Amino acid sequence: MSSIDGNYAESATPMLKVMRIQAPELASTSTPSQTCSHLSSSLILPDSFGVIHIGETFTAYLGALNVSSTEKVTNLSISATLQTPTRRFPMPSPLENKFPTTPNESKNYVPINIEPMQGLDSIISRPLEETGQHILRVEVSYGGTDPSQKSYNEKSSEGENPETESPRKLLRKFYRFQVSSPLHIRELTLRGGESTCFVSLAVENASSPENGKGSGLTISQNDFQPFTGLSAQRVKQVTSKSSSQMSAVELFDDSGRLDPGESRRYLFKVNAASEDADMRGIASGDELGKAIVTWHKSMGEAGRIASTFVYCPLSSVNLSEESKTPNDGSRFVVYGSGLSVDVSANSAYRSTHTSSNSEKTVPLDEKFPVTVEPLSPPSEMIVGVDIDIDFLVVNHSNRPLDLQLQMRLPMMTGVVIYGQSFKNLGVVRSNGGSAVCSVKLIAMVPGLFHVGGCYIVDLNSGMEIKQPNLMSVLVLGHKSD
């Protein structure tokens, strides 16, 4: 072991080894087959960091070897940092041993030394939460005078150095790797009423099926994490078969296996769970939650990925000038659309925010200062049989209105008003005041019809508010005797 002046021993240079720890991959066949799903007897070890997916836990091996046969590595410290596209995370390990710089730090310092032809190693890990380029930064420092031999109390006079210190040596290595998403998650949201939404999730294996380079995944769990005040329930086919009674094809289809390019669709029903949420309803733009998908690779490596936040969609009502003729081609109906909730939310928002002059569309609460919604309407009617239907009328404006509900026969087809065509509702208070009235309808011919022709009239100002089609109903023929 060599020495410069007897006060310290020169340190050997350590050799750094960094490897990613991962399961072996299945060896690919010479002719890739989409129908071959059995496990091969051959396994291959990755020659690089390999394919790394978001949701996995990145695990790496850090090793320091002393290849010198005569000198030892002294005062070793290895620190690792994982740099993502937006943040930087320290990855602590037993090899990280900060070199002291003050007398207080020196008291508790225990140096890490590596004897000749020996080595030390450690494991570091970190869950991956972002896609994009990541950098594993490894810094190795070693050498320097043993802190126990330093004399902090001695102060050298100008031009004198009573103690010769060995400088610390530094070695930095950077390992870049790309993190990708193994799955593509696409959301489709539909309104199911004032306090219900249906969320359809399409989960696709994003790896490329070309040239057999893609790898299959198994979806082990798919959950929807609802926002506070909401609840989510998976909608799926109910089967009475047990696993022992299912065929091999049925078991495979139910396993959640996704080969490259394949996809599965999951359906969730999101409801208002708390009393406050149920009273308010679910309005357009409200956060519903996000999907959490857990998957496994062929060798059991697990990962979790979350979708973007899912929001309640806008009502599909046409805000342009509506046709004055029946059956104007619009497929929108008020029942189940959540229009009344959207108008209330829009009115409340505009009352507390300054409106922009650049708005090109008419706000909902200006287009529909009063809304009409059927309460539990029938899905079927019979020709010639009249039925009473209750309608909820809500005043969203900031002033009380003396309202009259009108069902105009020329604007109705298939299902028409039966009896008196108007109802006086009296004065309905502002900002959410409501009234319920009953209207008698009768079906004229069989078929599927929209019930429309509804107008709300303010008797004081003469203002008319045309309502969209209120509901859809299937009309059946006469009952057989």
Topology:
Elements: E1 15-20, E2 25-26, E3 43-44, E4 52-53, E5 57-65, E6 77-83, E7 88-91, H1 103-107, E8 119-127, E9 132-142, E10 169-180, E11 183-191, E12 196-205, E13 217-226, E14 230-235, H2 248-253, E15 257-258, E16 263-272, H3 275-280, E17 287-296, E18 302-306, E19 310-311, H4 339-352, H5 364-367, E20 370-375, E21 380-382, E22 386-395, E23 401-407, E24 415-417, E25 422-428, E26 433-443, E27 447-451, E28 454-458, E29 464-466, E30 471-476
Parallel strand pairs: 4-10, 21-30
Antiparallel strand pairs: 1-5, 2-3, 5-8, 6-7, 6-9, 9-10, 11-12, 12-16, 13-15, 13-17, 14-16, 17-18, 17-19, 20-22, 22-26, 23-25, 23-28, 24-26, 27-30, 28-29
Report on this structure.
It comes from Chaetoceros tenuissimus. The protein has 481 residues and is mostly beta strands. It has helices at residues 103-107, 248-253, 275-280, 339-352, 364-367, and strands spanning 15-20, 25-26, 43-44, 52-53, 57-65, 77-83, 88-91, 119-127, 132-142, 169-180, 183-191, 196-205, 217-226, 230-235, 257-258, 263-272, 287-296, 302-306, 310-311, 370-375, 380-382, 386-395, 401-407, 415-417, 422-428, 433-443, 447-451, 454-458, 464-466, 471-476. The protein folds into 3 domains: 15-23 and 45-145 and 165-180, Immunoglobulin-like (Sandwich); 183-235 and 248-311, Immunoglobulin-like (Sandwich); 339-351 and 364-476, Immunoglobulin-like, CATH 2.60.40. The protein contains 5 helices and 30 strands. A 5-stranded mixed beta sheet has the order 4-10-9-6-7, with no helix packed on it. Strand 11 (183-191) and strand 12 (196-205) form a beta hairpin. It is elongated. Mean pLDDT is 82; it is low at 1-7, 35-47, 152-162 and 321-326.
